[in-house]
Design brief:
alpha/beta
Length: 200
């Protein structure tokens, strides 16, 4: 899933070459993700991208946020298609389980979450930016997301469910989708309690 296909609302603008002189916020055309992009030479102290200012007013930002999906996201749909092509069958968003996992494999007593790197704070990932505007609000929101994810994982493991996490960045290069689906299938057939797929 390349940016040219999914990110249509913003683009980089530069006075002369790279890095850009100004950054515009970008939003997935499918509404599945929201990220603030930065040039690759700007890194945070922990490897994540630095905070960047928002480029729209609060009313516009609220409208954008309202359209961000929590289910059936672009990365999730790509993984679902790849796993289905491998003959794997699953339930979707089972509300009886903690966190409503994106994919549930009852046969293997395993679940998978497809996490967006921005919203779920993928450590050291360039997609895990932090907006400068209302920074305290965003930090509280992100911290709550991380705590919630950790609690869901703990409850699932305690209930003898196996837990897999597939990060959005692992599915972005088209050539990696099949590889990730193979790794998920191998994990399902193993006895390992946990599995994580991220950008290699």
């Amino acid at each position: 899933m390349g940016c040219s296909r999914h990110y249509t609302e913003g683009r980089f603008r530069a006075r002369a070459g790279w890095p850009p002189a100004r950054l515009l916020v970008v939003r997935a055309s499918t509404g599945d993700a929201l990220a603030l992009a930065l040039p690759p030479n700007i890194q945070g102290s922990a490897g994540a991208r630095e905070s960047v200012p928002d480029t729209v007013d609060s009313a516009t930002r609220s409208r954008i946020m309202a359209r961000v999906r929590s289910r059936n996201t672009g990365p999730e749909m790509i993984l679902r298609r790849a796993l289905h092509a491998r003959g794997l069958r699953y339930k979707l968003h089972d509300s009886a389980l903690p966190g409503r996992p994106d994919l549930v494999f009852p046969r293997f007593r395993a679940v998978c979450f497809v996490h967006g790197c921005f919203w779920h704070r993928h450590e050291d990932c360039p997609r895990a930016t932090t907006p400068v505007t209302n920074r305290e609000y965003w930090e509280r929101k992100f911290a709550a997301n991380v705590r919630r994810d950790r609690e869901h994982r703990r409850k699932l493991l305690q209930a003898d469910w196996r837990v897999g996490v597939i990060w959005e960045c692992a599915l972005r290069p088209k050539g990696q989708v099949d590889e990730v689906s193979v790794r998920v299938e191998r994990w399902l057939q193993s006895r390992e309690a946990e599995f994580v797929a991220d950008r290699e």
